[in-house]
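Cross-posted from the bioinformatics board.
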Amino acid sequence: MKQALVRLLEKSIQAGIEQKVLPPPVPTRIEVELTKDPGHGDYASNIAMVLAKQAKKNPREIAKILSERIEDRDGLLEKVEIAGPGFLNFFVRQAGFARLLGDVHRQGERYGSSDLGKGRRVQIEYVSANPTGPLHIGHARGAVVGDVMANILDAVGFKVFREYYINDAGNQMNNLGKSVLLRYRELLGETVEFSEGCYRGEYIRELASELRKRDGDRYIREKPEDLIPRFTEFAAGAILEGIQEDLRIFGCVFDRYFSERELYRDDGVGKLLGELEEKGFIYREEGTLWFRTTAFGDEKDRVVVRQNGDPTYFAADIAYHLNKFQRGFESVIDIWGADHHGYIPRMSAAVQALGYEKDALKVILVQLVNLLREGKPVAMSTRSGEFVTLREVVDEVGKDAARYNFLMRRSDSHLDFDLEIAKKQSNENPVYYVQYAHARICSILRIAAERGYTVPAYDRADLSLLQLPEEVDLVKAVTRFPEVLEGAARSLEPHRVTFYLNDLAGLFHSYYNKNKVISDDAALTGARLFLCRSVLTVLQNALKILGVSAPEKM
RNA sequence: GCGCCUGUAGCUCAGCUGGAUAGAGCAACGGACUUCUAAUCCGUGGGUCGAGAGUUCGAAUCCCUCCAGGCGCACCA
């Protein structure tokens, strides 16, 4: 509907230009919005005010010129009014709205999707937690934001690739192996001391005892230098398997888990740094290699190879991002914890130095989660290994509530996650509000069927009977869905889908309480069933994108 | 000290990229189940959009200056 109105406006501006009452050109962006106040019609455009400056005319005068030249061939509009400083208010005929439900009917589970992305390839990297311990609640938010963002981009026509970067090459891996070895020795009766950087979580103890069960005490005679790599290998493998399992249970499935080690194969990182040095982006100073990130606006240059010869994490990350682009992705999205925001300028600099557009890399920052129980903070300390794992949260509150809760805020704002509220099956928990709307419609359709009503086909339903204000509002909301997905994709803001769902469910609950869908009037019942079915389709499609189930009964 | 993010109703937050009288949920109060599911709905009250100046037809939104909070400022990842 919005787009149809934009086209009408384009044509009327065109006509105005041809008749020399408006100066060219036709603006590239014409805004049409849903109105808040029914007195302002259904849709409104501010285009007359936008044109006022270049046309050097009073906005109301321009509005008049435009409204006189609108050729409504399809009979969508009842009338067009000029209001306030120069708004064009469109009053859509009821039949115009009802027609839109035909799209829902025809497209079914594809309703809402579009070809905004035109099949362009996007890679989206998220979670990417080091395999040094199980995922905790902090990782969960990034996982959901990434997963849902990917679903949204997929829906609007991008070809999406989901990836998890495994940081399995740094010295933290060494610490992991060392930590397990120490616990292993402890199990065999030695007294051990944990140095700085060691991991002390309970899971380390479990890994050690697993090793002991499997291989007994035969490692006790070997040298630590020989043992640590093997212990590391074992621990990282086991932990990564656990991470993958947790993510799967949480509904996050990746196309690929990319190992950092792969970047070092055949001295890949070294060669890349050499190339960048030839191009002048890297220089040597006091025995270290520096990347000239200041050339692209970073506040200082960054080390890529330390004095001791080891490449930094940043060096590998440059290679990783080059690898992404070389695999043919036109656009790359990284999802990071907000505490890494300082890392953006250097990564952006690297991407530009590699010869790609600045816009080719986009970063979504996800703020930390405050875990609460009945309003009181739950203590978490990664160092000591006291934290609530993702698995524990999913087990306690369920996948649906957990996922929905992480999508109720903009990603870059802090989020309080209260375990007790998330668990409650009450009105404090919005996920049930939406699911309940779905279950209610299912129930209506069931009972309608029992009474001999079926949802009519689009051309058999008399949708002109849908005249109540609540019905028009519902139709409007249904038609907003594709726009919401596009907006969420454009702005990289998955929370918009959640807010939209709350609105839609609210409109339905309100309608439901006031009106009967099933009545003795067969034609009216048919029209209302058709409307219900349309709402149901949107609820299902949207919930699917969020990775939240749509129960038929509650 | 520098940089980024945040500041909107008592609380938690939206505000569609500058539009018309700033919204929702909780909490408070008052109502609605003999009905297609009350995990719902209807109503009432509640605001100096952190403060100040600026840009223009028009600002919660954009620019500048302050104030408050968070996070960064490694040859860690």
